[in-house]
Design goal:
Layout (H helix, E strand, L loop, with lengths): L2 H13 L5 E8 L2 E12 L4 E2 L6 E2 L4 H15 L9 H4 L13 H6 L11 H4 L7 H11 L14 H15 L3 H12 L4 E2 L16 E2 L4 E2 L7 H5 L9 E3 L1 H16 L8 H7 L30 E6 L3 E6 L4 E7 L11 H14 L2
Antiparallel strand pairs: 1-2, 1-11, 2-3, 4-8, 5-8, 6-7, 9-10, 10-11
């Protein structure tokens, strides 16, 4: 591997203010070939980024927590991918939504809207009642398309999966996720909105006008924050090595090297592209044009992006993993340069393996 070429591109990212800091991990066939950190975790304190810096993983929560929890519950016999949400959450039943399934939520083709700023109403409600009110708001939101007819990336669909997981598992969303992680020795976690993680080394995110401070160690996503930081669409925190360890387990199962918390059939189903869309169940797959993973990942690749500037991609054929964690929204979300940088660094990584 040509480390100099990769370092050069990462340093250009710093110089061009794509991000204040970053961690990059590149691996193939469960061997790490490149692992380095760059820049600052916090530009105000000048705390340097390091390989153990903990990031707000934002929407990586969707595949690495919610989707895996659903898969585990299916293996427990609690549901199927084609189980209707209304069979699990009776409040969700109405004539437009009665056919929406777990699979629709995972594929982002349920017809639910992409996003609603629920936090604006929820922050005015007693904390103990917020999750129930949120569920009622999701159940009441009008569809923008019929189920199965349109693919639209939806935070709301994965927020709903929070309640599905709790109903099927009989426990809190985060507790069920921890049950999985603890069995695998995975160290990713959810934060609350207090200070119990104050001694940990986090990458800072936005200087938030709503919360009137630079965010560090609390979830950036407002809808997740307002219900305590634990939700199916956002809230997960972790290091590059944590993500890598979990992906290695999934690749091993997929390749038939051994069973872990899921069997091979289930993982193959998770990674199977929707024939009428661009995604598999809970994960992204490379788009035909302008893919964030660049042009060298095969069509049989899975990954995901996170709003805070994080991403992972793994080519299932080549068993290649590229994890790029940045704090691109520190201190402001207006920085969009990561869009052009992501395919560039993935191309360089793949060319130099």
């Amino acid at each position: 591997m040509n480390y100099k070429n990769i370092d050069k591109v990462m340093l250009q990212g710093l110089d061009q203010a794509v991000f204040p800091g970053a961690v990059l991990l590149i691996a193939q066939k469960q061997s790490i070939f490149f692992f380095n950190s760059y820049g600052y975790a916090d530009i105000f304190s000048k705390e340097k980024m390091n390989k153990d810096t903990i990031f707000d993983l934002a929407s990586l929560t969707k595949p690495l927590a919610a989707a895996l929890a659903i898969a585990a519950l299916i293996e427990e016999g609690k549901a199927e991918f084609n189980t209707a949400i209304s069979e699990i959450i009776p409040e969700f039943y109405n004539k437009d939504k009665k056919k929406i399934t777990i699979e629709n939520l995972l594929y982002h083709n349920s017809g639910l809207p992409a996003y609603k700023p629920y936090y604006k109403a929820l922050e005015k409600k007693p904390y103990i009642k917020r999750k129930k009110i949120l569920l009622n708001m999701i159940c009441a939101v009008p569809l923008i398309a019929s189920p199965d007819k349109k693919e639209l990336y939806s935070d709301i669909g994965f927020m709903l999966l929070t309640f599905v997981i709790e109903a099927l598992s009989g426990t809190k969303f985060e507790d069920y996720i921890y049950r999985i992680y603890n069995s695998l020795n995975i160290k990713m976690f959810f934060t609350d909105n207090g200070n119990k993680n104050a001694n940990k080394k986090f990458a800072s995110t936005e200087k938030c006008f709503w919360r009137k401070k630079v965010l560090k160690g609390v979830v950036h996503d407002q809808n997740a924050y307002v219900i305590g930081g634990n939700c199916g669409h956002a809230g997960l925190f972790g290091r590059a090595k944590d993500i890598y360890n979990l992906i290695c387990i999934l690749i091993s199962i997929y390749k038939g090297f051994g069973r872990s918390f899921l069997n091979r059939t289930t993982v193959i189903k998770l990674f199977k592209r929707n024939r009428n869309g661009t995604r598999c169940r809970g994960f992204d797959m490379p788009s035909d044009k302008d893919a964030s993973c660049g042009k060298y990942f095969s069509a049989n690749s899975v990954g995901h992006l996170g709003y805070t500037g994080v991403s992972f991609w793994t080519d299932l054929n080549k068993e290649t993993v590229v994890i790029l964690l940045t704090n691109r929204i520190h201190p402001y979300c207006s920085n969009k340069k990561i869009r052009n940088f992501r395919p560039l660094i993935h191309n360089v990584a793949m060319m130099n393996l």
